[in-house]
């Protein structure tokens, strides 16, 4: 736990702090009263005289003020005894901010845990129908998911839109929960070398575009591309309909994760794609993920 | 300094106990009036009800401050600053005109000391009896009186602590909890802390607070000048003082002051006002009351000790002259400052819309292209309905040709609800320039068009 790698600095702080506290006490004691030459005036002076005749009046502070100073010293010593402050000494109470943070987490868990636990035991579709769970899920989503998928869950380039019916790994509520719990790693290998020349890649891209009936697809290139598409079928299937078991996207719809222009598709073929959805299971805990999954599922299944 | 015999100087002195004599008269009555007014307000206010809730409640847990019909949110914190500024200007103004009247008549320290002294007098008797009792050795009678006094003080102090906490937590629930002592830890702490502060300050420390702790007392002197009203002893008339002569009513030495020391006996800070203006003087005018009643007895005119100004006493001015001197640049500047702040606060409160909105652009994307080539931006509207009534609001956006909402354009919020509403704005292809475009998002209550807030935002058209 100690931040001090060398005991010298530990001792340095201990000695400095102790001397400081004791020094305050000695100073206070030595300055509370002292002897001066007697002076007969209406108000006593401290006996300090300078510039020939300037004297300092003694208008004493109240005694309780002095005791308050002593009390602060006692408080300081007690504090250093109970709490960390003297070098690497951890304090009698063993307090530290990490423990306090854990205690706070435990308190929050005991307060909100039962609520999440109640939902965790319910079926995901039932949770999705619950208004309170929906509000909780929305807040969880805005906190943990909106950075990538957007506040409205409609995604970004490279980050799937969660409000449509198109799912890379399947849109059943349990599958969504799997995705959030364990994360996903979607890899499209670079296929440039396997397909051949730049011309071939361009042809395949146009064929891919033709699968969804895109107007941008060049019919001639598309025909040439079709013959090379065999390299893609292992994952995307014969008609390019994708494979949710592998997380391979359906190429025959108009939903594009990275963009649907021929250039983007060519880039994807040439360089491949590597996409990671981090796992939130350990971080959020299953019961929170449960509520969150129900919310995400409801985004594309609610009749609103 | 020639004497060689040394003397011990103490830098910290034990407190000299003061036994103030009860003052009766105009100013004492005025002070009791202030005690009643301030304490009826303080003890009574938390019990009032408004809109089915406590009328004045500073709810720290939900961070909403209720003041009758007004609900203040953390965003309205500026009003607290404004209140402090108003208080400061008021203090400047009052002090410049009339010295430390606040200290002498309305300051909580004075008010509670007055109440505690009243209890002390009722139980231990008047000044002479209290002084005699202090000299006595231990006896059952003495200790039973002391115990009774401290118990009575304790009751007032606890009630004060309870009321104080009642401003921050619903006092009726707190009152119910009192019978079972079912306070939360913080309620316990603050009730006892505030009670202890009242007991210690008004019972034990008294003038020590004014002399050694109070920050106001330190800088009030900078608002004083020669035309400020102060409690002052008319030395020209009073001196030379001495014992009262039977025939004239004046002192045997010829001055008006008959050296009865009543002004010293009634002084709550234990000073002799005849030594001139001192920083310990809190301007309570107890000495004025005492001296007036003595002057009445010896058939002399009142006003040997009176509210007057330094200039008036030295130059011999009339009351009319004093009034004429009251309107001086310093006072006019303080008046103007006060008026300005009060007007600013009042108009800002009157024009305030109980609806707040922040427009937060999603940082994840610059702007996405949707079907038909339209550009879409995502925002989060943080909407706060700061009124106590629920409303339905219409969301609108403008600033680009064809700019429209792609999401629901209406939203309902309950009273004092805060909600984050994601919206999408869509502009047709070619609208605006590449990069950021300034737009305005507006929120209007359907049932009350006056409830409108507009916020500027940025719409990004990607390259």
TrEMBL record, chain A:
Family membership noted in the UniProt record: Belongs to the CcoP / FixP family.
Function: C-type cytochrome. Part of the cbb3-type cytochrome c oxidase complex.
Subunit structure: Component of the cbb3-type cytochrome c oxidase.
Family matches, as PROSITE patterns: CYTC
Official protein name in the record: Cbb3-type cytochrome c oxidase subunit
Cofactor comment: Binds 2 heme C groups per subunit.
Gene Ontology cellular component annotations, sorted alphabetically: plasma membrane
InterPro entries xrefs: CcoP_N, CcoP_N_sf, Cyt_c-like_dom, Cyt_c-like_dom_sf, Cyt_c_oxidase_cbb3_su3, Cytochrome_c_Oxidase_Subunit
Subcellular location: Cell inner membrane
TM region(s), chain numbering: 9-29, 64-83
Family matches, as SUPFAM superfamilies: Cytochrome c
Binding-site residues, heme c 2: 188, 232, 235-236
Gene, per the UniProt record: ccoP
Record flagged with keyword Protease: no
Top-level taxon of origin: Bacteria
TrEMBL record, chain B:
Keyword Magnesium set for record: no
Pfam families the UniProt entry points to: Fer4_18, Fer4_5, FixG_C
Transmembrane segments: 30-50, 77-98, 151-168, 188-205, 331-351
Keyword Aminoacyl-tRNA synthetase: no
Ranges for domain 4Fe-4S ferredoxin-type: 248-276
Record's keyword terms, sorted: 4Fe-4S, Electron transport, Iron, Iron-sulfur, Membrane, Metal-binding, Transmembrane, Transmembrane helix, Transport
Entry-linked PANTHER family: FERREDOXIN-TYPE PROTEIN NAPH
Name this protein carries in UniProt: Cytochrome c oxidase accessory protein CcoG
Organism for this UniProt entry: Pseudoduganella plicata
Gene symbol of the encoding locus: ccoG
